[in-house]
Design goal:
The protein has 15 helices and 11 strands. Helix 6 crosses helix 12. The radius of gyration is 24 Å and the shape is globular. The chain starts with a helix and ends with a helix.
Length: 462
């Protein structure tokens, strides 16, 4: 394909995208295909000779859409949305065309400096202290790993950077049971080990109990272990639990522990000042991560990590061999030193486009609507025969069950096979429950209320 042909096919792809999004409500949300069916439609070997783009595009249209779970569907209420607003899509097209490898400032000055400014814009939009700097990762999993690696090395006086963990004291990381599994993965990858991730008991509101955190740290010190850091959950994936940030950070600071706040989903809502009491005290955190791709319309992948002081993380992760030097520039910002990968995409461009195309007030309106509609839907479900709200709305996330575990699981299967909405499950206090999370960029109140309609119809006679 030549660049002239790319122009023609880009226009056709844009037209296809318009039809795809305009017809989204007519599609089942979750892919209605069996495992292996898509692979069976592809040749077993790659072509030796070039094939015409007409044939390639025709195969795309025939195979891909019907085998896709439509994450941009306005009735996608599963997991957390991975939003892609039109402005973000446009920015990604441009970033793809430029195809910069933004590992160093000199390899893409625009990517580096726009990233610095966009982190500042988002910091201010969320009401964080102006001292926070930050960087953009692919996902919150990577940001949390970076924070845990920093906890590890800081606790060991940075000897682990050169000497590794052999002979080091047994490290301990603290988090609540509501914290995302990415924390478990981080302690494994950091060499700390799953057994050394201490799941601190929670209070009645399912947030971490600060007194229990303090007791766990003190018990580990007596046992000869080395506490290293605390990870706080802010809007947990399962039921939307919120740890008491100020109290937990106070305990951590009293023991000189590094702190990380995982606000991957709920952090976006902090652009609305009325919700910020949920994370009072966050300005004392060492590290905070949130995903603009979950609720701000910035296309996946995009996770922003704010750092009160970048130096400790750079000390853990930074590496500058001769071939990555920028001659004549000693103190220049190279964001690859703030994270795990050397290679970096130009992710800041889509943040810039989205914030300008919709404005903070336009984004606030969406979030406020989602929170309001989720509360309204939960109230409707609570009054339906056989249904029970198991956890009330935390922002726009709540859970419910129908009669018992078996009936709930059966209903969820029928809902997703029906295709009009997509919901997923979790377990809460030993019960199988269904999650509803309202957050898709283009959903309407009618889309949200469709959940109640589907539940009412499919539960009849069950």
């Amino acid at each position: 394909m030549t660049h002239d042909e790319l122009l023609e096919w880009s226009r056709r792809a844009a037209a296809w995208a318009l039809d795809y999004h305009n017809g989204m409500r007519d599609r089942p949300v979750r892919a209605q295909v069996a495992y292996g069916a898509t692979a069976a439609r592809l040749p077993g070997t790659p072509p030796e000779a070039p094939e015409p783009m007409d044939a390639i595009f025709a195969d795309f249209e025939a195979i891909v859409p019907d085998a896709t779970t439509h994450w941009q569907h306005p009735r996608f209420f599963a997991y957390f949305a991975a939003n892609a607003s039109p402005a973000s899509m446009l920015a990604e097209q441009l970033a793809n065309a430029i195809a910069a490898q933004a590992m160093l400032w000199q390899t893409s000055p625009a990517a580096t400096e726009i990233e610095q400014v966009m982190v500042g814009w988002l910091r201010d939009a969320l009401g964080l202290a102006p001292a926070f700097a930050g960087t953009i990762h692919d996902s919150a999993t990577t940001a949390t790993l970076c924070a845990v690696l920093t906890m590890r090395d800081r606790a060991l006086g940075w000897r682990s950077v050169d000497e590794g963990l052999c002979g080091a004291p047994r490290l301990r990381i603290y988090a609540s049971a509501q914290t995302h599994s990415s924390v478990d993965k981080a302690v494994r990858l950091a060499g700390i080990g799953q057994a050394n991730l201490v799941k601190v008991p929670t209070a009645d509101d399912h947030g971490m109990d600060p007194a229990a955190l303090d007791a766990a740290i003190r018990a580990d010190l007596v046992a000869g272990y080395k506490p290293a850091g605390v990870v706080m959950c802010f809007g947990g994936t399962s039921i939307g639990a919120f740890d008491p940030v100020a109290e937990c950070i106070a305990v951590a600071k009293a023991h000189d522990l590094y702190t990380h706040v995982d606000a991957a989903w709920a952090g976006s809502a902090m652009i609305c000042p009325e919700f910020r009491q949920l994370w009072d005290g966050v300005d004392r955190a060492d590290s905070v991560v949130f995903n603009p791709h979950k609720w701000l319309g910035v296309q996946f992948d995009c996770a922003v990590q704010f750092l009160a002081d970048p130096a400790p993380q750079i000390r853990s992760l930074g590496l500058r061999p001769d071939y990555l030097q920028t001659l004549g520039q000693e103190e220049i910002v190279n964001f690859n030193e703030w994270t795990v990968p050397l290679g970096r995409r130009f992710r800041a461009l889509k943040i810039w486009f989205v914030l300008r195309a919709y404005g903070l007030e336009g984004l606030r309106m969406r979030i406020r609507n989602h929170v309001c509609w989720a509360a309204e839907l939960a109230d409707i479900i609570a009054h339906m025969d056989g249904f029970e709200i198991t956890t009330p709305p935390a922002l726009s996330l709540f859970t419910f069950r129908y009669r018992d575990d078996a009936a709930t699981a059966d209903l969820l299967t029928r809902v997703n096979d029906d295709g009009r909405v997509y919901l997923t499950q979790t377990r809460h206090e030993g019960q199988f429950v269904i999650r509803v999370q309202v957050g898709q960029f283009d959903c309407t109140r009618d889309d949200v209320m469709t959940v109640a309609e589907v539940l009412a119809r499919l539960s009849q006679g069950s």
